[in-house]
UniProtKB/TrEMBL annotation:
Subcellular location, principal: membrane
Entry protein name: Wax synthase domain-containing protein
Transmembrane helix listed as a keyword: yes
Residues covered by the Wax synthase domain: 280-365
Organism: Hyaloscypha hepaticicola
Pathway this chain belongs to: Secondary metabolite biosynthesis
Pfam family, any one: MBOAT_2
GO MF, one example: O-acyltransferase activity
Length: 439
């Protein structure tokens, strides 16, 4: 991707550096809650610094000037204000055992068996640095004690959680014995080919639509169509669908590349991160979308990279009763859901604000905020249909229809601003294959 790493690093490095230093020296930075607040304020100051005016016209780089520091601020809120990582958190570490005698093998082990153990905050400075780096960059919390959703962990890892009294959730279709390295690499290679070709196909159509190719000096706003205000019943959903697909394949391709590199190079380079269970899919299934509509889209289908941090902050500020469905689906539930979308919207709005182009960060933020209303409306409609004993076919049709209508109405507020930022003009693949066969 055509990101200018030099200017980007200079802008966004300070917040992560402050947080990293604070975690590896807890006796200094976690000595009192006041010191933690001051450290968090320093991270906040780094966000202000990153959002200062600049002259970088690269769309992806400019967007990250705002997006990345806001994400660092959210992570810092969780790690500085809501928790104390050194005593609170542990991570799973793989250890190799070699049972030399026959008696040991009969007790349930075999030569070269893999076992796992918890690694608390290390005493060794070098291991402490790696531990902290993993905590800050492992956004999904895979293999950490604080994350209850662990996707496709094998039974050997599950036992470590069980012994610690931590009840984790695993995907229903997972392979309990764990996926082999060879089969995982084969699967990811195929995913890479599919993602690459389909992303290339998306780019082929993006390059031919002027709505996605706004020039740097243009003052045209692309909120609702091309030109602004176009409510075409076919063009709008086509552009939203194309922009969403391109975003999906860019993220999935990056995820697949990271998995291939980590597992491909092996544990000698990446330790436990070289295991297949550390790289579960980012996305849910289409059933989540077609069965539940908007709640399924945002709750399960769309990626969960930032979900844990959003939920942690929200549950602290707006606690819900674990045994009360009214709390979850009532006003408090709506407020909690709105806060989650507000956190996500603030990150994207900051990225939009940092662009040199004419963008609309407040409209983008509003586009995220109102998603909670759509989710609540869809749940209410579904509940009424269930009470009315509406047939499954009609119920599914109504679910898909509302989801399509809501996307048609609100998604251009998000996709349109991303197009105005110039993100869809970024060079994300080195070789275009589709253009060679389809002019």
């Amino acid at each position: 991707m055509d990101i200018q790493l030099g200017p980007l690093t200079q802008r966004i490095i300070w917040g992560p550096a402050i947080l990293f230093t604070a975690i590896i020296f807890p006796k200094v930075f976690y000595a009192s809650y006041a010191s933690r607040i001051l450290t968090f304020a320093a991270v906040g100051a780094s966000v202000v610094w990153a959002l200062q005016p600049h002259d970088i016209d690269n769309a992806a780089t400019s967007y990250l000037f705002g997006f990345a520091p806001l994400w660092t601020l959210i992570v810092s809120a969780m790690l500085l204000l809501l928790s104390n990582p050194a005593p609170d958190f542990r991570r799973i570490r793989k250890i190799e055992i070699k049972l030399k005698d026959e008696a040991a093998r009969k007790e349930g082990g075999a030569v070269g068996d893999a076992q796992y153990e918890w690694e608390a905050f290390p005493e060794s400075f070098e291991r402490r640095c790696w531990w902290t780096l993993d905590l800050m960059m492992n956004w999904r919390g895979l293999g950490w004690s604080f994350q209850r959703r662990q996707h496709r962990i094998p039974d050997a890892v599950k036992r470590v959680y069980d012994e610690a009294g931590i009840d984790v959730k695993r995907d229903a279709d997972e392979k309990r014995c764990g996926q082999s390295r060879a089969s995982f690499l084969k699967e990811q290679c195929w995913n890479f080919v599919v993602d690459y070709v389909l992303l290339d196909l998306c780019i082929h159509f993006l390059d031919r639509d002027p709505w996605f190719n706004k020039s740097l000096n243009s003052d045209e706003r692309l909120l609702f169509g091309y030109p602004a205000g176009n409510y075409d019943i076919l063009v709008r959903p086509y552009r939203v669908f194309l922009g969403t697909l391109a975003t999906y394949f860019v993220m999935d391709l990056a995820h697949v590349v990271i998995a291939l590199v980590s597992v491909g190079l092996g544990p000698s380079y990446f330790g436990t991160h070289a295991e297949p269970w550390q790289h579960p899919p980012l996305w849910g299934t289409l059933d989540d979308l077609f069965q539940r509509g908007l709640p399924g889209f945002w709750g399960n289908f769309w990626h969960d990279l930032f979900r844990f941090q959003f939920l942690t902050i929200t549950r602290t500020l707006i606690p819900l009763s674990p045994n009360s469905k009214q709390s979850e689906h009532g006003i408090r539930g709506l407020l909690a859901m709105t806060l989650i979308f507000a956190l996500s919207g603030s990150m994207h709005a900051a990225g939009s604000y940092a662009e040199l182009r004419e963008t609309t960060p407040l409209w983008l933020f509003a586009g995220f905020m109102i998603q909670s209303l759509g989710v609540a409306a869809q749940e209410m409609i579904t509940g009424l249909m269930v009470k009315g004993k509406v047939g499954n076919g009609v119920r599914r049709g109504a679910t898909i229809g509302f989801w399509w209508f809501w996307g048609w109405l609100t998604a251009p507020m998000v996709i349109g601003d991303m197009a105005a930022c110039g993100l869809f003009q970024s060079k994300v693949i080195p070789v275009k294959i589709v253009d060679r066969f389809w002019k």
